[in-house]
Design brief:
Strand 8 and strand 9 form a beta hairpin. Helix content is 28%, strand content 28%. Helix 1 packs parallel to helix 6, helix 2 runs parallel beside helix 6 and helix 8 crosses helix 9. It has nine helices and 17 strands. It is globular. The termini are far apart.
């Protein structure tokens, strides 16, 4: 029997476990093995550009954390290029990002969880059942075995395809689903480049190119069910036609994962029900303009750590909801409206 069960040990889940680990008896599940990374082909890597934004840096500062040098993939990024294929325009903005190795970053956050917190890797959440005594029975698969535990509080920190969210909110609509697809290539030209690509022929969201020292990442967030993989291949062709050098000989691997894009902060964000709570992407907390999720993961974990009550959590999350509303109703309009974006790029202002 545990006080809290946390499903998922990404930035949101691991942060909450660290903040509450000394106060409660906590059990954590994570489907990954999280063994020491041996090579670039590690299957447990998450499909992620791995840029820590200025907002996420502020969140880490609130948590009293400084990113260790061994987690930095290459030098701090001080520029972001925008390639507007719709308007045939390119520009550069001054923005500060930390370019990280995502696997090492997750491992670093997990290693700070107090030792008294029990962690089960290679374990998949299956279902939750409410008990008569206000407790929850949790079933999960560990290897080939089905295990059961009981808890007073259940926390879903298991990402966009949250099984916890599906279990407790079977009838609730989810935010629009996208699939993020990302190719890794060898960086044979030693390029130092971070690019955001806008092209509605590919996606109504955005695509990216990010250098990682020895590697180049090319990715896109595409709507599910709209020939996503074909559109991704078209993106690769367009980038090549534009003069960017990537080819099949330098290809290393392909990654993919689902993300949810909250277009309605009231409908698309769900914080849980009763003594079950959702944080990070499981709650729908991600930027609808840039898909940035680190800051929302950290901030929602901090908000929930202040009190395990729905009313208190909802109150503590108000500023996060406001940020998502602003990102969708202001930043997204300026970024994805062809005419307005063209004006802003030519003016030199930040989009």
């Amino acid at each position: 029997m545990f006080d809290i069960v946390i499903v998922g040990l990404g930035p949101a889940g691991s942060t909450l476990a660290r903040l509450l680990g000394e106060k409660y008896k906590i059990f954590c599940l994570d489907k990954r093995e999280l063994i020491e990374k041996e090579n670039i082909y590690n299957k447990m890597d998450k499909c992620c550009g791995g840029l820590i934004s200025e907002d996420a840096q502020k969140s880490l500062k609130k948590l009293g954390l400084n990113i260790p040098n061994n987690i930095i993939a290459c030098d701090k990024v001080s520029k972001l290029d925008v390639w507007d294929f719709e308007n045939n325009l390119k520009t550069r903005y001054s923005k500060i990002f930390y370019n990280i190795d995502r696997y090492k970053f997750d491992k670093w956050l997990i290693d700070m969880i107090p030792k008294n917190v029990r962690i089960e890797y290679n374990s998949r959440f299956l279902q939750v059942e409410k008990q008569n005594d206000d407790m929850y029975k949790i079933k999960y698969r560990k290897g080939n075995e089905i295990e059961e535990i009981t808890t007073k509080y259940l926390i879903g920190a298991d990402g966009a395809n949250s099984l916890v969210r599906k279990s407790i909110l079977k009838s609730k609509e989810d935010a629009p689903k996208y699939i993020a697809i990302q190719n890794w290539y060898k960086n044979t030209s030693n390029l130092d480049i971070q690019v955001s690509i806008i092209d509605k022929e590919i996606t109504d969201f955005y695509s990216w190119i990010i250098s990682k020292g020895k590697y180049i990442l090319v990715g896109s967030a595409l709507k599910v069910g709209q020939d996503s993989h074909l559109k991704f291949e078209k993106l690769i062709d367009k980038i090549k036609e534009d003069g960017f050098k990537i080819d099949d000989d330098t290809f290393i691997k392909k990654q993919g994962m689902h993300i949810r894009r909250p277009v309605n902060p009231t409908k698309d964000i769900c914080l849980g029900d009763g003594n079950t709570f959702l944080i990070g992407e499981a709650a729908g907390l991600i930027s609808p303009s840039s898909a940035e999720g680190y800051s929302y993961a950290f901030d929602s974990a901090m908000a929930l750590s202040k009190g395990l009550r729905q009313s208190e959590y909802s109150r503590n999350i108000k500023k996060i909801r406001l940020r998502i509303w602003f990102a969708n109703n202001i930043k997204s309009i300026l970024t994805y409206n062809d005419f307005l974006r063209k004006m802003f790029i030519r003016s030199g202002l930040k989009v």
